[in-house]
Each structure stands twice: as C-alpha cells, then as structure tokens.
C-alpha cells in the first residue's frame, strides 16, 4: 500500500511539474538558455582565473569581450542589411511593375498570371494602408519586438552571469534536493552535460560566425548582389543539420544567376568549400569526435520551433545535445560502483607513478636519501599495498591488479 501511494505521489508530482513548466514555458526557456550561455563562456573565464584573475573580474572581462565582438558584428551587419533590404524591395517593386505592364501582352501563360495579379497601387495600399496605418502598426510592432528582445537579453545575461560566478552554490542548491546516495552520480552527469553542451555551443557559434563572415567577404569580392543578406542567411543555415548546405547553396546560386553564370558558379563553389572546410577541419578541433545526432537535432528543432518560435529554435540544438548526453550517461556509462572503482584504481596508479618518479630522480641526481626519507618512502609503499589489498578484497580490483 505504501509503495502504491509512493508511486502515485511521484506520478502526480511529475505531472504537476510538467504542467507548471508548460504554464511558465517562457521563464523555463530563459532559465535554460542562461545555463547554456554560462556553460559556453566558463572555459574562457577559467583560463583567466587560473592565471590569477579574480572570478568576478574574469567573467566580467569575458562577457564584456563577447558583447563587444557580437555588438560590433551586429552593427556592421545591420548597416549593410538595411541598405540591401531597401534595394531588394525597390527591385522587387520594379520587377512587379514590369510584369503587370508587359505580361498582359505576352504569351498565354503570362497573360493568365497577369490577369490574377493586383495592380501596383493596390499592392501598395494592401501593405501600407490607404492612410499609412499599416506602416505605423508595423513600426510599432517592430519596436515592441525589439524592446522585448532586449529585455530578454538583459535577463539572460544577468542569469547566466549568476550561474557562472556562483556555480558551486547553485550546484549545492539543486543537489540538496537529491538523496545523498545519488548526489555523486547526479553531479557527474551534470558536469558531463555542462561540459559537452558548452563545447557544442562554442563550436556551433564559432562555425556559424566563420561561415557568415567568410562567405560575406567572398560574395562581396566576386560581385554577388546582397552579400550581407546572403551571409546572414548562411550563418543561420549552418545551424540546421543535413539540409543546411542546401539552404545556403540554393539562394547563393539563384542570386548569382541574376548576374551571370560564372558568378553563380563561384558563389556555389565558395559555399560548398567553406562548409566542407568547417565540417572537416574546424569542427573536429572545436568539438571533437562526439557529435550530436543530426536526426535528434532536426526532430527537436521542429518541435521547439512550432511550440516556442525563434527562442525554441535557439534552444533546440543544446537541448538535443543534453538529451543525447543524458542517454549516454544513464544507459551506456558505467555504474557508480564501477566508476568509483576506476577512480580508486587511477588514483592508486598515479600515486605509484609519482613515487617511482621521486625514486628515479634521486638515482639520476645521485643524491643519497636520508634514512628518514627512505623510511617515508617505505611507509607510503606499505600504505599503497594495504590499500590495494583492501580494494581487491572489496572486489574493486581484478585479480591481476590485486
């Protein structure tokens, strides 16, 4: 009866937790993204801390450098992007005007299409409104969206700074909710997830930035129209597994055909070359061989984009990485007892190596060890032999080692 009550309570608690997470999904997403950001910047700050910088100053410098880099990149992109969007709008409007004027006298299929198209003035009235209210509403909506994005960005940076600077206290807080016998296992899984998700995010952000910047410069040099717009699209397309290269290649070649065939070929070959370089040479050095399953990323990306929009798309790749790591740690990794035995064996092996190094250095330097020094070494060896025997009796060492 008690077991049934315990199982029922667990199920009800889990369902209540799922409902609460759904009700406060935006807050949960902000929380998760802040953890992802903190895990991504932690290695950079840790290097500064290891060199003697205080924890707060190290994280402050890393966040400031990141803000300067991405802020400067955003300023450069937005400047070219606005002019290219205006140019594209003018060219599309001129093309539409030419179609409505010439296609009614063209071939039969052109006449059929032209008869269904509204006039240029009707199209402008549809988008702008007769009194300009549609434009005003669009501007107000855009401004509101920008303000909301900036507010969420401030919240994300504040939360991620707290998780990063106060990591130990945060870990103690949530580990206190777990029973003592499972805390070591939970801490191991948590740190494995944090380490690999951080590496994955750093790898994807770096490769996406490299793809956009390098192809933007190449497109500008070969005379491809809308280089900034295409570079931004390619940087986003890189984040989509499998079909990302097609999403980047098709627009680049299509825009190149507006100029001539050689430019289109150069644009296509450049895109393929940059993607291949990033995939073959850069990614293994940034993230290693443990790749996240593309199928898992695509499935979660579809679900998160449908449920939460752009923010869901941003959280989908690290969420896929987290699920894959959790699955590996929970089902394919060693049990806590086996892991503990490995830790003991490794520590014992390391201690024996250090002791052997000390003895070898004494022989190499031809320094006569004092009787007290030799006694210390013999005592340490005896303690290690006793430890190894105790581990062997407990079944934590195989027979060859014990």
Automatic annotation (TrEMBL):
Compartment list: Cell membrane
Matches recorded under InterPro entries: AI-2E-like
Topology term for the membrane: Multi-pass membrane protein
Record GO biological process: transmembrane transport
Keywords: Cell membrane, Membrane, Transmembrane, Transmembrane helix, Transport
GO CC list: plasma membrane
Parts of the chain that traverse the membrane: 7-23, 29-45, 57-77, 146-165, 205-224, 230-250, 257-282, 294-316
Main localization category: membrane
Family the UniProt entry places it in: Belongs to the autoinducer-2 exporter (AI-2E) (TC 2.A.86) family.
Descriptive protein name: AI-2E family transporter
